[in-house]
Specification:
The protein contains 17 helices and 22 strands. It has about 500 residues and is α+β, with helices and mostly antiparallel strands. The two termini are about 30 Å apart.
Length: about 500
Amino acid sequence: MNKDRNAPSRKAFDPAKLQALLEHLGRLLPDEKQRQAFYSCSQTQPPASLRLNPLQAQSQTLEPLLRQLGEPVPWCEDAFGMPESEKGLGQMLEHAMGALYVQAKAPMLAVEVLAPRPGERVLDLCAAPGGKSIQIAARMQNSGLLLLNEMRSKRMPSLVGNLERCGVANFVVSQAPGAMLARYFHNFFDRILVDAPCSGDGIVRKDKNMLNYWSSENAGHFGQQQIGLLRAAFHMLKPGGSLVYSTCSLSLEENEEVLLGLIRRYEANVEIRAIDNYENQPLPAEIAAQYPADFSRGVRVWPHHHNTEGAFVAHLCKREPTISSHRDADAASWLPQTRCDAAADEARRAIESRWQCDLPRPPGQVYTLSSRLLTLQPALGPAIQQHLPHFVRSGMRVARHHKGYSFISQQTVALCGHLMQGPSIELNFSQLQSIFQGQLAQLDRATDLKGEVLCRFGPWTACRAIVQEGGLLLDGMLPRNFFRNNLRTLV
């Protein structure tokens, strides 16, 4: 989960500071045996884990293999703990194609509790680097509206890059402080995820560099920021809607104390709901007595229980509409675009004719053509772009239109390539490696195909390519951020 900090230079961690942190958190466990198990686990690296991306149709071909290689994550049916390192998984073809996302097990729980549905309006208030956003989009089946907010501009490239790689289309990205965003979306969203920037004390087993700045006072400072974010999110939630508050911290300062900050503002309007299908470790009785009884419904993911990083998750609901203390923009009056414009429709039909397929049209999404980019985006995307000063971009770039021809994007190739019947060439793995290294691929024999073709490898449509003169060379049209010097495959 998110950490809002400037990473200090790496240096050897202070064992005394590690011990202080573990004792600070260990007091939340019921007995010495549990504490010792936590201390021991926290000094080892967590195993890598990944989640399949249902938006990528070919991802499901991997599930039988992953069940053999990995260990299922109990709270996420698409996820597996893996013996492979995170770095190794990032070199996989399946990763490049967006079929899987490398993600710790603990953060996945927050989205499973949120349980977003197709067609809803959902907000991810602190979205980068995008793992949970992609998980939400998959649960929504790329329909409805998914607003992804990220306050820090330097985290935008990772967010947008991951959205593009994984074929997310139903999103709008904004960059604003939570309180500022709340002015535009009063009582607006069906579901909201607040994966708050935090001290990161729950990830100490993965990144001991966080010890360079951790203290209980610093955790309290984060807690004050988190209260502001949570209050802003609650302001934007529809009555009856669901809000999930999560951190990668285990401390009281960044969890129960933050919930108290919300209760002090909204009192009985806040309902804390039970989290099903997760066996929670309750706080010691003397600590639990300091908080309302329903705070026990929030859960901690302890590293030694599930061999993962630490996390906290609470499921909240708004009983009645909140009243604004300032003048809000009336987002409810923003009109969705109900049909594709003529130019976008013409470009879409030309692509479908060229590649002999039907492009996807999820409910609540429209095709738009602007600045020569054909985009599939939420129907509310154009209105949000017009009315929200903090708008960054929206939707999946389907193609670039130039001189009457539409050049399909890598995202379209990965997401829809299995539907396309246009000219294609089957590659061997050596040829595929050449393209992923930014080199020309040498064909075994000359092809009669001319111009633009699709490159296929097994179930994957890897990219577009241009057949070079003579028909023996392929120039892959693969964006540089997809390059892999040591491309491998799970199969």
